[in-house]
Write a structure and sequence with these properties.
75% helix, mainly alpha, 257 residues, 10 helices, single chain
């Protein structure tokens, strides 16, 4: 029997995430088909995070970090199903009703809040292992600057549309971009923690979480694209981001087994 190595999880996560994203794009002519496939990475992230949480007790902050991320992705699944809107920059279904739009905004807020809470808790994990590295603030500032450079323009553009009375459907995107900016800022702390743990099995969950957050950075950057190129990029990066997150939970459970 072949033993599963930590890097195997990274390879499988990449293949699964890419396959889901490409499949969602392949069935784009069927809105419901795309929606159904687009929910799969949320479920992978939710289940993987729950598996990670079960490796800890109620006294451990990592339990609550993983549960927060799991809840975020359950909310994400329900939001996609209710709004029939995959994580795309361009709406591919009919305009949302007022009820669906309100549900979409509420779901987006909750998804981002729970995700940020979980990532912040992970970003503070260095407290349990060693004194904060001297370059921790610089890494956090650099990640914020990168996130602002990528996600900032879409926030500004959305706010301008709202101010001009043209942005009825923009609020979910604005909230999502602000949440992404906060999550991207956590790339610095997550990367610092992963580097501090290099050589040990605990490096893998942090490395996978970092990769997942980088994928959302790429998702925000896809606003520079258009048409099918933007659509397949959105679906691929979102799928990979969530799949890496789910497999990070599996890697954390494996590291502590």
């Amino acid at each position: 029997m072949v033993a599963v190595k930590p890097w195997h999880l990274m390879v499988v996560a990449t293949l699964v995430g890419a396959a889901i994203g490409l499949t969602a794009f392949a069935v784009r002519s069927s809105p419901w088909g795309m929606v159904a496939v687009a929910t799969l990475p949320y479920l992978v992230a939710a289940v993987g995070a729950l598996v990670g949480a079960l490796a800890f007790t109620r006294e451990d902050r990592m339990l609550w970090a993983w549960l927060s991320i799991s809840v975020a992705n359950v909310v994400g699944t329900l939001t996609v199903l209710v709004t029939q809107a995959p994580p795309l920059h361009t709406l591919v279904t009919a305009p949302l009703s007022d009820t669906a739009q309100a549900a979409g905004i509420s779901g987006t807020v909750l998804l981002n809040v729970f995700t940020v809470i979980g990532l912040v808790m992970f970003g503070q994990a260095w407290r349990s292992f060693a004194p904060r590295p001297a370059w921790y603030p610089a890494a956090t500032a650099a990640a914020f600057a990168l996130g602002a450079l990528v996600a900032g323009p879409s926030v500004v553009h959305g706010l301008r549309l709202v101010a001009n009375g043209e942005g009825r459907d923009q609020w979910a995107g604005i909230i999502s971009s602000v949440g992404d900016l906060t999550s991207i800022t956590m790339i610095g702390p997550l990367a610092v923690t992963a580097i501090r743990m290099r050589g040990g099995s605990l490096v893998w969950p942090y490395a996978l979480l970092t990769l997942g957050t980088l994928c959302w950075l790429a998702w925000d950057a896809s606003t520079l694209l258009s048409g099918d190129t933007q659509m397949v990029t959105d679906l691929m990066t979102a799928s990979l981001g969530m799949t890496f997150t789910g497999f990070a939970g599996l890697a954390h459970r494996r590291a502590l087994a």
